[in-house]
Amino acid sequence: MGEREQVRPLAPVSDRPGSDDDEATLNKKKFHQRRCFKYCACVSTLLLILAIILIILIFTVFKIKDPIIRMNGVTVEKLDLVNTTILPMPKPGSNMTIKADVSVKNPNYSSFRYSNTTTSISYRDTVVGEARGPPGKSKARRTMRMNITIDIITDKIVSHPGLLDDISTGLLTMNSFTRVGGRVKLLNMIKKHVVVKMNCSITVNITSQAIQDQKCTKKVKV
Fold first, then answer.
1. Does residue 48 share a domain with residue 77?
2. Is residue 14 part of a domain?
3. Rounded-to-integer distance, Cα 219 and Cα 67, Å
4. Percent of the chain with pLDDT over 90
5. How many CB atoms lie within 10 A of CB 129?
6. 81 by DSSP, 3-state: which?
7. How far is CA 184 from CA 69, 125, 135, in A?
8. Is residue 157 a contact partner of residue 163, using CB atoms and an 8 Å limit?
9. Same domain as 105, residue 50
10. Which spans in the chain are helix H?
11. Does residue 9 fall inside a structural domain?
12. Are 55 and 130 within one domain?
């Protein structure tokens, strides 16, 4: 070996992250995790609140209610009478026309679509006339009115054995039956099929051809 030793520089030591860098990275990761957790918790809470509000509205404000059908008035037209030894009575071979003013009230916040409306008139359990109304739609919280014309076959009334008892009182009592079937749809999710039936007892004054009395009862089937 020579007198002078050649000094060689040491190889540079590779940079290694210290403990402070490890702790900073870990804290940053925990911060992101906490932020994501808080975000998910806020979104879940908001969705839960909205679901609760929607359920409350469905069972309170938006609760589906039964449509209401009413017979507002009945008028008698084209009643031909013949004089008898007792009182005037319907002329055989003629027809009597009854016009009924029917309304369908929709108390819901959605429309009520109904199919054909059927109305029949009977005298002492014998059907003497029937009419059908067209389908339609009653808007939300609105009332739809319709006029139904029914032609009564008086021969079925005249041939009934109980007619003389009614003629002696001057009053003719008939029954009407109206059926309205439809569907209420709420928020395009909840559907409710409803059938409203109404029975009315109508007493007609034979001489004046006016409605003397009218009583109605309603029944709703879902």
1. no
2. no
3. 11
4. 3
5. 23
6. strand
7. 15, 33, 14
8. yes
9. no
10. 19-59, 154-158, 163-169
11. no
12. no
When the pLDDT of each residue in the chain is averaged and rounded to a whole number, the result is 79
Higher pLDDT, 142 or 79: 142
Short-list 197, 199, 57, CA closest to 125: 199
CA nearest to 98, candidates 46, 168, 148: 148
Domain that holds residue 42: 23-61
Residue 122 has a pLDDT of 92
User: pLDDT tens, 29-62?
Assistant: 777 778 888 888 888 888 999 888 877 776 776 7
pTM: 0.64
- The Cα–Cα gap between 178 and 150 comes to 12
Task: Give the Cα separation of 186 and 81 in Å (integer).
Answer: 52
d(Cα 105, Cα 124) in Å, to the nearest integer?
30
